[in-house]
Amino acid sequence: MPKLPADRSESVFTDAKPAYTPNQAMVEAHRCLYCHDAPCIQACPTGIDIPTFIRKISTGNLKGSAKTIFDSNILGMSCARVCPVEVLCVGDCVYNEMGVPPIQIGKLQRYATDAAFEQGWAYYAAGPDSGRSVGIVGGGPAALACAHRLRRFGHAVTLYEKRPQLGGLNTSGVAPYKMPAQRGMDEVDWVLGIGGIQVELGVNVGEDISFEELEFKHDALFLAFGLGPDSRLAEAGADLAGVEGAVDFIERFKLGQEDLSGVCQAVVIGGGNTALDVVRELIVLGVPEVTLAYRGQEAGMSGYTHEWDAAKKEGVRAAWQVQPVGFEGADGKLSAMRCVRLDAHKQPIPGSEHNLPAQRAYLAIGQSKLGDLVAGLQGLEVARGRVVVGPGQATGRPGVYAGGDCANGGKEVVNGVAEGRDAAIAIHDYLCALS
Ligand SMILES: Cc1cc2nc3c(=O)[nH]c(=O)nc-3n(C[C@H](O)[C@H](O)[C@H](O)COP(=O)(O)OP(=O)(O)OC[C@H]3O[C@@H](n4cnc5c(N)ncnc54)[C@H](O)[C@@H]3O)c2cc1C
Ligand code: SF4
Fold first, then answer.
1. Is the distance from the beta carbon of residue 400 to the nearest atom of ligand 1 less than 6 Å?
2. Minimal CB count within 10 Å: which of 128, 224, 359, 367?
3. Distance 228 CA to ligand 1 centre (A)
């Protein structure tokens, strides 16, 4: 993949969880109890054998440790950084029940996988040519995990990605204090290092080529096209310059430059994890006053508590139980968000309309679902915008599989990896049965 420009706006961010030194990693690895029925493994969507990789770190076998991780999760390097471990493996570590700090599994995973990158250790080779080919729609985590596993089975793979780069939201969406975009791109190169994964960038499947044409070209398809654009509001003034989708904004400053000069106040509408990322990002990008505007109460936010706690410490303000009713501005530019207070039943309180001054308002109220792209394919079911899948990520249309956000409705990178990997195993069985 081509390198991203070095002067990206995200370059001002520092690592929220800096890497372990060898001594720190060794001390932490030795604390692990190597539990027999390790709950941390159950909590990992990719089922990484966590006690085994940690034990290998403790015995100095870093190469073997990283292999244990990659065997289950080929994007183990980025998952070590971006996984919400507090609610996954670390949250289930037995130490939590003893009132002792849990094992820092993510940091240990990063220690082992970073070593693999830096040393250039290669673990996997493509299998003998099977004569079968699979088309994959998308180039994000689910697509990459599927492509890599399919190559290990020896199938030809082509990724069709509409953007100019691979990586999906793992490159363009995750907060830069967790992982900068270039690191995600380097990982893409590492995954492609298995060889033989064809990449077609700038191909918008459904417009540039139809799904039926792809089915004709390949023996099976894996749909991994993620979610669509940010949801918008229909309120008056929502088209003013400065009222923007949150994911669009994140992508712009991660991959390029974003000019926030003159922005003294910004408001972020939403209460999920994207909203919490954006408020923290705006503070670091230098916006003096950042307000999270949420229609519920603090305890009702769907975003992770640990992320909100961090945002508060960084100086983010909150306006609880408010809802935008319009946007005001002059010369086409936003100057304030007009909002109304809501009661405990989320009903507007009469006479409570007021302005929140803001030169930017970011909508973090969800992303649209793209399932309609494939809704016309016979046998394939789409429900509430998601592609419906059964065991092995199979859709109801023979040879067509789906995974990641387009099927699960929007979860985490690690879920996309698990579903891409599982789909590859099911696709392999399907292709073997064709012969
Ligand atoms: C702002 C934000 C922050 C996040 N932070 C985290 C985090 O910290 N940790 C975490 O684990 N998860 C995080 N996530 C979620 C995570 O990024 C996703 O769950 C994950 O990337 C899903 O992978 P995917 O492969 O299903 O989809 P995506 O990563 O969205 O990849 C889909 C790809 O398909 C391409 N595509 C779409 N339509 C077409 C088409 N018609 N033709 C060709 N290509 C197409 C897209 O361009 C995209 O590259 C975050 C999400 C967002 C929005
Ligand atoms: S639960 Fe904690 S102590 Fe037990 S194996 Fe997992 S990381 Fe180690």
1. no
2. 128
3. 9
Using alpha carbons only, what angle is made at residue 167 by residues 78 and 190, rounded to the nearest 5 degrees?
60
The predicted pLDDT at position 77 comes to 97
Q: Does domain 133-162+202-226+370-434 have CATH number 1.10.540.10?
A: no
Does the predicted TM-score (pTM) go above 0.70? yes
The answer to whether the CB of 38 is under 6 A from ligand 2 is yes
**Among all ligands shown, which has an atom nearest to the Cα of 279?**
1
State yes or no: pLDDT of 435 exceeds 80.
no
Give ∠ CA 17-20-22 in degrees, rounded to 5.
175
Which is nearest to 331 in space by CA: 242, 236, 245? Answer: 242
Q: Is the CB of 82 under 6 A from ligand 2?
A: no
- Give residue 1's pLDDT: 78
- Which neighbouring-strand residues pair with 386? 383
Summarize the confidence of residues 217-222 as an average pLDDT: 98
**CA–CA separation, 180 vs 183, rounded Å?**
6
pLDDT at res. 356: 97
> Which residue of 44, 88, 169, 249 sits with most ligand 1 atoms within 8 Å of its CB, as the best mutation to test the pocket?
169
Q: Where in the chain is the domain with CATH 1.10.1060.10?
A: 9-119
Beta carbons within 10 angstroms of residue 254's beta carbon: 25
Task: Quickly state the pLDDT bin for 409 (edges 50, 70, 90).
Answer: very high
- What integer pLDDT is reported at residue 55 of this predicted model? 98
In which residue ranges of the chain is CATH 3.50.50.60 found? 133-162+202-226+370-434, 230-367
Report whether residue 57 contacts ligand 1, using a CB cutoff of 6 Å. Answer: no
Instruction: Say if residues 57 and 102 touch (Cβ distance below 8 Å).
Output: no
Q: Which atom of ligand 2 is nearest to the CA of 31?
A: 3
Does any ligand 2 atom lie closer than 6 A to the CB of residue 319? no
Grouping H, G, I as helix, E, B as strand and the rest as coil, residue 342 is strand
Q: Which ligand is nearest to the CA of 101?
A: 2
CATH topology of domain 9-119: Fumarate Reductase Iron-sulfur Protein; Chain B, domain 2 (1.10.1060)
